[in-house]
Amino acid sequence: MEKGLEQNAVELDSVSTYYYGEKRPALRDVTLRIPAGSLALIVGPNGAGKTTLLETILGLLRPRSGRIKVLGYSIPAEASKARALSSYLPQDFMKPPIEPFTAREVVAMGLASSSFSGRLLESGWKKVDRALELLGMMDHADKPFGKLSGGQQQKVLLARAIVREPKLLLLDEPFSAIDLETRSYIVGEIFPGLLRGGCTILLVSHDLDCSSMDADLVIRVVDGRVGQVIMRDAHAAH
Amino acid sequence: MLLISSIIGGVLAGGLCGAVGAICSRLKLTTMAFSMAHAALAGSALALALGADIISLAMLLAIATAMILGPLADHLRIPIDLASMTLFSLYNALAFIFIISAPGPALMTESVGQLLWGSILAIRPMYIAYLLLASMIVLALLIIFWGKISSILFDIRLAEAEGVNVKAYKYAMLVIAGTTVTLALRMTGGFLVFSLLYVPAAASLQLQARMKNIIAASWIFGSASASMGLLMSFLYDLPAGSCITIAALIILLAASAYSRLRASLAAGRRA
Question: Model-level pTM?
Answer without folding.
Answer: 0.87
